[in-house]
Design brief:
Length: about 725
């Protein structure tokens, strides 16, 4: 529906008029006049007193009030004042029977749309309808202007940019809230009439004043000028400033409009991006990681200007500072460790077995941050520009384990903790502390997260380099071991050839020895002599030949074929025979021999030569392990079994230095030896184990509690033995 006067689509339905008139006849006259003009144009409600009229207005739906000032419960200007207070923006036309110019002027000054004197119907009709039309149009225009003003004011009040007006001499005449906050003012009256000299250092204020004078003289705007300054809170800020002159329709100067945009975050982001590039370059350079971390920390401290920075990295289950600048010794004494401790000094652990890490650093490193909480980011960082309210968190609302709040107690208002990741694992954090408020923004913290990722990548690269170096060292070691094994194979082949040669030599020597023995026996039986020296010489020669014959037989036995020839044997006899072969070497090395052989041992199915080879090897190993002398101990005993039968156990012990724990699992490996090349093949114990296992037995080696080595051989009797 369109406006009743202009035809514009402003309101649907008739104009709702509240007629406040106590004279019924006068009220009826006015109603008739309005309906005669246009019957459906108005909807009229009547109130005969001010109280009733106020109730109608409060209920709403009134477009215009026709108000008589002479009512039973109120008279004069006070009637209008009270109605205006209740009606708000609803236009009011005063109808009065008094031609009082003073009263009429007062009501109009107070906001009345018109002051009409009640008279004859024709005159009243024309003036009233015209006044209603003008009042509604004027009210709408005023309403639109007020709405536009409110919108503009709302925009100015909520813009983050600082917007202000100055006069010709640089004094503030208006400013929005952003400007007031920057200057530390609580109300516009705190800055109106003041200049930049009241808020900035004299040098900077003089620069601004010169800039504005130049603007007035040249009539050229100042566009996008950057300036670094300090706000009322003492925080360094960067402002992008534009200043223009405002003139009226005649071109006369009205005011200077200034707009300051805070670009601190943009400048800081630019500086931090440059810092990140510098740190990336550092981390890509070859060098020692701890030194590199110290250099990175120095850059962070210098470029950010924060009071304290630190880097924590994992060390076992704890996360101490590997580098820090700005923290006091007292702070580090408390905060260098994050592990929660029990009253007796034990480590506190979570139900999953992980160590419990204390305070906010522990929360971040444990990965227990909540992105829905404004204190945390999606990257797992924790940051605040006002840390002191954290002291008032109730225990149930505090996600931290045992909050210490040392940062807060030492006066750090701004705190940012940024996790360092290596792949999907948190291995440390970056820490930034400052005693000023407002040091961080979400963008700033996210840039720190990027720097933390660079450090994490460097750590991962360093770890990979270390692993590569370790693998290279192990490869070199394996190559050396392979070369040594090849030498031992050559040595073993040589020893096999020597053994075959010895067997051949033994065969060749055996017959001449037999002839020599027979000849000597013949001489001793046929040649009679009373010369004791000759008899002694013959006997010594005979003993030497018997000893040579014994050695030849032993060589033949040692070089015998590898197949087992099992016969029931007395293990004690085998041990004694092997010991006789080794006793000379023991005597030469000044090694005592202690033998404790068990009585009534059951006979065992043995290949005598092979078992003698085992015990001879064990005795020689024991002797060689005691170059400074010692004791060789041999023991045998029988152990009955519950399942029937028995096992015979033999121990070969020495009092040498023993075998390193790391080598005990390797001693039976082929070619494993700690002897110099040429001194052993590393096959002795390996062959010994094969021989024992072929006999169905076991061989174990270990260190004695009192020092030295013990080798234990266990062999089983035949069923029913």
């Amino acid at each position: 529906m369109r406006d009743v006067f202009t035809g514009d689509p402003v309101k649907t339905g008739p104009v709702s008029i509240l007629l406040v008139e106590d004279d019924a006849a006068c009220a009826l006259l006015i109603q008739n006049l309005l309906t005669q003009w246009r019957r459906d144009a108005f909807s009229i409600r009547r109130a005969d007193c001010l109280a009733a009229a106020l109730r109608e207005v409060v209920q709403g739906g009134i477009d215009l009030v026709l108000l008589d000032l002479g009512l039973p419960d109120s008279r004069g200007l006070d009637t209008f004042v009270r109605m205006q207070a209740a009606a708000g923006r609803v236009p009011i036309i005063v109808l009065s029977g008094l031609d009082d110019e003073t009263l009429g002027t007062a009501t109009v000054q107070q906001g009345a749309q018109d002051y009409i004197i009640k008279g004859q119907a024709p005159e009243l009709n024309a003036s009233l309808v015209r006044a209603i039309r003008y009042a509604i149009e004027r009210s709408r225009a005023q309403q639109a202007l007020a709405d536009e003003h409110d919108l503009l004011r709302n925009i100015l009040d909520n813009l983050p940019d600082q917007i202000y007006l100055k006069d010709k001499v640089g004094r503030f005449v208006a400013a929005n809230p952003a400007t007031l906050r920057f200057l530390g003012a609580s109300a516009a009256s705190d800055i109106i009439g003041k200049s930049d000299r009241d808020f900035f250092p004299s040098e900077l204020a003089a620069r601004f004043q010169s800039e504005e004078l130049d603007l007035l003289q040249r009539d050229q705007p100042c566009m996008n000028r950057e300036a670094a300054l300090t706000d009322a809170a003492g925080q360094p800020r960067w402002l992008l400033t534009t200043k223009v002159l405002l003139r009226d329709h005649a071109g006369a100067f009205q005011s200077l409009l200034g707009i300051n945009r805070d670009i601190t975050d943009l400048k800081r982001a630019e500086a931090y991006r440059e810092m990140a590039r510098e740190i990336l370059q550092m981390l890509n350079e070859p060098g020692d990681l701890p030194i590199m971390i110290q250099r990175v920390l120095a850059v962070l401290k210098t470029r950010t200007g924060f009071d304290a920075v630190g880097i924590r990295l994992q060390d076992g289950e704890d996360y101490p500072y590997v580098a820090q600048m700005g923290f006091s010794p007292d702070f580090l004494l408390t905060e260098n460790t994050l592990i929660g401790r029990t009253s007796d000094g034990g480590v506190c652990r979570n139900p999953d077995g992980h160590v419990s890490l204390e305070c906010t650093c522990g929360l971040v490193i444990s990965g227990k941050t909540d992105p829905a909480n404004p204190l945390f980011t999606r990257g797992g960082s924790c940051w605040t520009n006002h840390s002191f309210p954290l002291l008032d968190l109730p225990p149930g609302a505090d996600p931290r384990y045992r909050p210490r709040n040392t940062c807060i107690h030492q006066g750090f208002a701004s705190v940012a903790l940024v996790p360092i990741h290596v792949k999907d694992r948190i291995v440390g954090l970056l820490q930034f502390n400052d005693r000023r408020t407002g040091c961080f923004s979400l963008d700033t913290v996210e840039q720190f997260e990027g720097i933390a990722s660079l450090i994490g990548a460097a750590l991962m690269r360093t770890r990979a380099d270390d692993q590569l170096k370790q693998a290279h060292a192990e490869l070199i070691k394996a190559h050396e071991a392979l070369a040594a094994a090849q030498m031992r194979l050559i040595e073993a082949a040589k020893m096999e050839s020597v053994g075959q040669l010895a067997a051949g030599v033994a065969h060749e020597v055996k017959n001449p020895l037999a002839i020599a023995l027979m000849g000597l026996e013949f001489l001793s039986n046929t040649v009679a002599t009373n010369d004791d020296q000759v008899a002694t010489a013959i006997q010594d020669t005979k003993d030497a030949l018997l000893q040579a014959d014994y050695i030849v037989r032993e060589l033949l036995n040692f070089a015998a074929p590898a197949k087992l020839e099992m016969k029931l044997q007395d293990l004690n006899g085998v041990v004694e025979h092997a010991l006789r072969l080794a006793r000379l070497e023991a005597r030469n090395r000044q090694i005592a021999v202690c033998v404790d052989l068990g009585q009534n041992l059951p006979h065992l199915p043995l290949d005598r030569i092979k078992i003698e080879q085992v015990f001879l090897n064990l005795c020689m190993n024991a002797i060689e392990s005691m170059p400074e002398g010692g004791t060789l101990i041999l023991k045998t005993r029988v152990h009955p079994l519950e399942t029937g039968g028995a096992e015979v156990i033999a121990d070969v012990e020495d009092t040498g230095p023993g075998i390193p724990e790391g080598n005990l699992q390797k001693v039976f490996d082929p070619f494993f030896t700690k002897k110099q090349i040429g001194k052993g093949t590393g096959l002795g114990l390996s062959v010994a184990r094969q021989i024992i296992e072929l006999h169905g037995g076991t061989i174990r080696i270990g260190n004695r509690p009192e020092g030295g080595t013990r080798v234990t051989i266990t062999l089983h009797t035949q069923t029913g033995e």
